[in-house]
Every structure is written in C-alpha cells, then in structure tokens.
Amino acid sequence: MIQKFKQITSILxxxxxxxxxxxxxxxxxxxxxxxxxxxxxxxxxxxxKPNSGESYLLGVKAGQKLTVNFEPDSxxxxxxxxxxxxGKNGKTVLDESFGEFEIDLEQSGDYxxxxxxxxxxxxxxxxxxx
Length: 130
Prior knowledge:
By secondary structure, the protein is of the alpha+beta class. It has a single domain, classed as Jelly Rolls. The protein has 1 helix and 9 strands. Strands 1-3-8-5-6 form a 5-stranded mixed β-sheet, covered by helices on one side. The termini are far apart.
C-alpha cells in the first residue's frame, strides 16, 4: 500500500513538473517544418537531465487531423506527450504517456507539442497532418 502511494505521488509530481515546463516553453518551442510536398516530419532527441522535456510548435489549420506518435526508449521513466491549442493559455487536447494518437484540430494556429521523460531517454516524435 505504501509503495503504491509513493508511486502515485511520484507520477503526480513528475506530471506537475513537466506541465510547468510546458507552460513556460509554450511560446518558445522548436518549430516543426515539413519537407516540400510532405505531410509528416520526425524529430529525434535525447533528454540528458532528470525531469526534462522539449516543446515543439506546429502550424495547422482548423479542420485538419493531427497524428502524433511519441516513441521514447523502451523502459523510459514516466514519458509524457501533451498537445495544446494555440495561444498563451492554450487548452490541453492530449495528455498521454506515449504511443500514436489522432486529434481533430478545431483552431488554426501554432499548436504546442510537449514531450518529456522523468529520467534520461532518447525519443522519436513523428507528426502527420491530414
């Protein structure tokens, strides 16, 4: 019981830390650009510090569908992927651990995609617009 409580507390703490990083990096993320004639792009990276993450900006149009595929190393500690709507106070439309997710986009503008891990890990993030 105590072990389960510690695990839940750790997960909540990591989520709060990573969400805070998402808010502060929301307008300063790295821009994801597609190659000419392509509708998808992949970025790869490494988190070298505990509880670190990266924000990416992706310009989209209302009515498009966004597919996000976040793949951290196997065994990555508490990975997280979040997608927020445009604007300083963007609304979170995706908050998951890892995997592939589809989102129907209701607003035009720069969506923020935040990815992070609790410990050092390598990752791959693929985004596709349809």
